[in-house]
Amino acid sequence: MVTVAATASRKSRGRRSSKELGREREHLTPDEVEKLANTAKRNRHGLRDWLMVILAYRHGLRATELVNLRRDAVNFDAGVLHVTRLKNGDAATHPLQGDTLRALRRLFREAPASPFVFVSERGAPFTRAGFQKLVVRAGVEAGFAFGVHPHMLRHAAGYKLANDSVDTRTIQAYLGHKSIRHTVRYTELAPGKFRGLWK
Fold first, then answer.
1. Is 62 a catalytic residue?
2. Between residues 24 and 67, which one has the greater pLDDT?
Protein backbone atom coordinates (compact mmCIF):
# COMPACT_ATOMS: atom_id res chain seq x y z
CA MET A 1 0.00 0.00 0.00
CA VAL A 2 1.34 3.44 -0.98
CA THR A 3 1.08 5.96 1.84
CA VAL A 4 0.32 9.65 1.36
CA ALA A 5 3.79 10.45 2.69
CA ALA A 6 5.43 8.13 0.17
CA THR A 7 3.45 9.67 -2.67
CA ALA A 8 4.37 13.18 -1.54
CA SER A 9 8.01 12.18 -1.23
CA ARG A 10 8.03 10.76 -4.76
CA LYS A 11 6.40 13.91 -6.14
CA SER A 12 8.90 16.09 -4.31
CA ARG A 13 11.69 14.28 -6.14
CA GLY A 14 9.98 14.93 -9.44
CA ARG A 15 9.08 11.26 -9.99
CA ARG A 16 5.51 10.31 -10.65
CA SER A 17 3.98 6.92 -11.25
CA SER A 18 2.34 5.92 -14.54
CA LYS A 19 -1.13 6.22 -13.04
CA GLU A 20 -0.36 9.69 -11.67
CA LEU A 21 0.70 10.68 -15.18
CA GLY A 22 -2.44 9.14 -16.66
CA ARG A 23 -0.48 6.37 -18.40
CA GLU A 24 -1.99 2.91 -18.27
CA ARG A 25 0.60 1.36 -20.57
CA GLU A 26 4.35 1.55 -20.80
CA HIS A 27 4.97 0.02 -24.24
CA LEU A 28 3.66 -0.02 -27.79
CA THR A 29 2.91 -3.01 -30.00
CA PRO A 30 4.85 -3.41 -33.28
CA ASP A 31 1.77 -2.24 -35.23
CA GLU A 32 1.48 0.85 -33.02
CA VAL A 33 5.16 1.65 -33.50
CA GLU A 34 4.71 1.41 -37.26
CA LYS A 35 1.68 3.72 -37.08
CA LEU A 36 3.61 6.20 -34.92
CA ALA A 37 6.63 6.16 -37.25
CA ASN A 38 4.49 6.58 -40.37
CA THR A 39 2.71 9.50 -38.74
CA ALA A 40 6.06 11.13 -37.90
CA LYS A 41 7.10 10.58 -41.52
CA ARG A 42 4.46 13.09 -42.61
CA ASN A 43 6.29 15.89 -40.77
CA ARG A 44 8.31 18.54 -42.57
CA HIS A 45 11.48 16.58 -41.75
CA GLY A 46 9.77 13.24 -42.21
CA LEU A 47 12.83 11.14 -43.02
CA ARG A 48 14.66 12.25 -39.88
CA ASP A 49 11.59 11.94 -37.66
CA TRP A 50 10.67 8.48 -38.99
CA LEU A 51 14.23 7.30 -38.53
CA MET A 52 14.38 8.57 -34.95
CA VAL A 53 11.28 6.58 -33.99
CA ILE A 54 12.45 3.45 -35.82
CA LEU A 55 15.99 3.48 -34.40
CA ALA A 56 14.73 4.11 -30.86
CA TYR A 57 12.43 1.10 -31.23
CA ARG A 58 14.62 -1.37 -33.08
CA HIS A 59 17.64 -0.72 -30.90
CA GLY A 60 15.86 -0.12 -27.59
CA LEU A 61 17.39 3.33 -27.25
CA ARG A 62 16.63 5.76 -24.47
CA ALA A 63 15.83 9.26 -25.74
CA THR A 64 19.21 10.59 -24.61
CA GLU A 65 21.04 7.65 -26.20
CA LEU A 66 19.23 8.39 -29.46
CA VAL A 67 19.98 12.11 -29.63
CA ASN A 68 23.59 11.49 -28.55
CA LEU A 69 24.21 9.13 -31.49
CA ARG A 70 27.20 10.26 -33.50
CA ARG A 71 27.78 9.63 -37.18
CA ASP A 72 30.89 7.59 -36.45
CA ALA A 73 28.67 5.11 -34.58
CA VAL A 74 27.26 4.05 -37.96
CA ASN A 75 29.42 1.63 -39.93
CA PHE A 76 27.95 1.43 -43.43
CA ASP A 77 30.49 -1.12 -44.66
CA ALA A 78 29.64 -3.59 -41.89
CA GLY A 79 25.99 -2.53 -41.69
CA VAL A 80 26.10 -2.03 -37.91
CA LEU A 81 25.37 0.56 -35.25
CA HIS A 82 27.65 0.95 -32.24
CA VAL A 83 25.38 1.61 -29.27
CA THR A 84 26.67 3.35 -26.16
CA ARG A 85 24.37 2.94 -23.16
CA LEU A 86 23.61 5.25 -20.25
CA LYS A 87 23.16 4.18 -16.62
CA ASN A 88 26.36 2.11 -16.73
CA GLY A 89 24.75 -0.13 -19.33
CA ASP A 90 26.83 -2.39 -21.53
CA ALA A 91 27.73 -1.08 -24.98
CA ALA A 92 26.91 -3.29 -27.96
CA THR A 93 27.09 -3.51 -31.73
CA HIS A 94 23.72 -4.00 -33.42
CA PRO A 95 23.05 -4.99 -37.03
CA LEU A 96 21.15 -2.37 -39.03
CA GLN A 97 18.30 -3.29 -41.36
CA GLY A 98 18.35 -2.33 -45.03
CA ASP A 99 15.68 0.36 -44.75
CA THR A 100 17.45 2.11 -41.88
CA LEU A 101 20.83 1.92 -43.66
CA ARG A 102 19.30 3.54 -46.75
CA ALA A 103 17.58 6.19 -44.63
CA LEU A 104 20.82 6.97 -42.76
CA ARG A 105 22.75 7.36 -46.03
CA ARG A 106 20.13 9.77 -47.34
CA LEU A 107 19.95 11.67 -44.06
CA PHE A 108 23.73 12.13 -43.98
CA ARG A 109 23.64 13.50 -47.53
CA GLU A 110 20.77 15.92 -46.89
CA ALA A 111 21.24 17.06 -43.27
CA PRO A 112 23.61 19.85 -42.23
CA ALA A 113 27.14 18.65 -41.57
CA SER A 114 27.45 17.59 -37.93
CA PRO A 115 29.16 14.91 -35.86
CA PHE A 116 25.68 13.96 -34.62
CA VAL A 117 23.22 11.76 -36.50
CA PHE A 118 20.16 13.86 -35.72
CA VAL A 119 20.26 17.64 -36.02
CA SER A 120 17.92 20.57 -36.33
CA GLU A 121 17.55 22.74 -39.44
CA ARG A 122 20.35 24.92 -38.12
CA GLY A 123 22.68 22.00 -37.59
CA ALA A 124 22.41 21.93 -33.79
CA PRO A 125 22.19 18.50 -32.12
CA PHE A 126 18.60 17.34 -31.66
CA THR A 127 17.55 17.49 -28.02
CA ARG A 128 15.89 14.99 -25.72
CA ALA A 129 13.04 17.45 -25.15
CA GLY A 130 12.67 17.88 -28.90
CA PHE A 131 12.35 14.13 -29.41
CA GLN A 132 9.81 13.91 -26.61
CA LYS A 133 7.68 16.60 -28.27
CA LEU A 134 7.99 14.82 -31.61
CA VAL A 135 6.75 11.51 -30.14
CA VAL A 136 3.92 13.07 -28.12
CA ARG A 137 2.71 15.02 -31.14
CA ALA A 138 2.88 11.99 -33.42
CA GLY A 139 0.92 9.96 -30.87
CA VAL A 140 -1.85 12.55 -30.83
CA GLU A 141 -1.91 12.84 -34.62
CA ALA A 142 -1.96 9.05 -34.95
CA GLY A 143 -5.12 8.99 -32.83
CA PHE A 144 -3.86 6.91 -29.92
CA ALA A 145 -6.30 6.88 -27.03
CA PHE A 146 -3.43 6.97 -24.53
CA GLY A 147 -0.42 9.19 -23.99
CA VAL A 148 2.74 8.20 -25.84
CA HIS A 149 6.25 8.96 -24.60
CA PRO A 150 9.72 8.06 -25.96
CA HIS A 151 10.56 5.40 -23.37
CA MET A 152 7.62 3.34 -24.64
CA LEU A 153 9.75 2.62 -27.71
CA ARG A 154 12.52 1.06 -25.62
CA HIS A 155 9.97 -1.04 -23.74
CA ALA A 156 8.35 -1.96 -27.06
CA ALA A 157 11.66 -3.45 -28.17
CA GLY A 158 11.92 -5.55 -25.02
CA TYR A 159 8.38 -6.89 -25.29
CA LYS A 160 8.76 -7.58 -29.02
CA LEU A 161 11.90 -9.64 -28.44
CA ALA A 162 10.30 -11.50 -25.52
CA ASN A 163 7.19 -12.28 -27.58
CA ASP A 164 9.46 -13.61 -30.31
CA SER A 165 10.85 -16.06 -27.71
CA VAL A 166 14.31 -14.49 -27.68
CA ASP A 167 16.10 -15.73 -24.57
CA THR A 168 16.39 -13.38 -21.61
CA ARG A 169 20.19 -13.17 -21.67
CA THR A 170 20.16 -12.07 -25.29
CA ILE A 171 17.53 -9.42 -24.56
CA GLN A 172 19.64 -8.26 -21.60
CA ALA A 173 22.71 -7.87 -23.81
CA TYR A 174 20.74 -6.19 -26.59
CA LEU A 175 19.20 -3.59 -24.28
CA GLY A 176 22.43 -3.14 -22.32
CA HIS A 177 20.98 -4.01 -18.90
CA LYS A 178 23.65 -4.44 -16.23
CA SER A 179 21.31 -6.59 -14.17
CA ILE A 180 19.04 -9.25 -15.63
CA ARG A 181 16.31 -8.28 -13.15
CA HIS A 182 15.58 -5.29 -15.42
CA THR A 183 15.12 -7.67 -18.34
CA VAL A 184 12.87 -10.34 -16.82
CA ARG A 185 9.95 -7.88 -16.71
CA TYR A 186 9.59 -8.39 -20.47
CA THR A 187 9.59 -12.18 -20.37
CA GLU A 188 7.35 -12.29 -17.30
CA LEU A 189 4.65 -10.14 -18.91
CA ALA A 190 4.98 -11.36 -22.50
CA PRO A 191 1.76 -13.18 -23.48
CA GLY A 192 3.57 -15.22 -26.14
CA LYS A 193 4.64 -17.88 -23.66
CA PHE A 194 0.97 -18.68 -22.94
CA ARG A 195 -0.03 -19.26 -26.56
CA GLY A 196 -1.21 -22.75 -27.29
CA LEU A 197 -2.08 -23.63 -23.69
CA TRP A 198 -5.78 -24.07 -24.56
CA LYS A 199 -5.60 -25.95 -27.84
1. yes
2. 67
Question: Which of 27, 48, 59, 154 does the annotation list as catalytic?
Answer: 154
How open is the CA angle 27-31-47, to the nearest 5 degrees?
95
Residue 25 covered by a domain: no
CATH of the domain at 65: 1.10.443.10
Out of 45-49, 70-74, 183-187, 192-196, pick the least confident. Answer: 192-196
| Residue 131 domain flag | yes
151 catalytic residue (yes or no): yes
Q: Residue 181 falls within a domain, yes or no?
A: no
Q: Is 155 a residue of the active site?
A: no
Of the residues 11, 16, 87, 195, which is catalytic? Answer: 87
Angle (nearest 5°) at CA 193 between 176 and 146: 70
- The answer to the question of residue 165 being in a domain is no
Q: Indicate the helix (H) or strand (E) that contains 65.
A: helix 63-67
**Host domain of residue 89:** 31-149
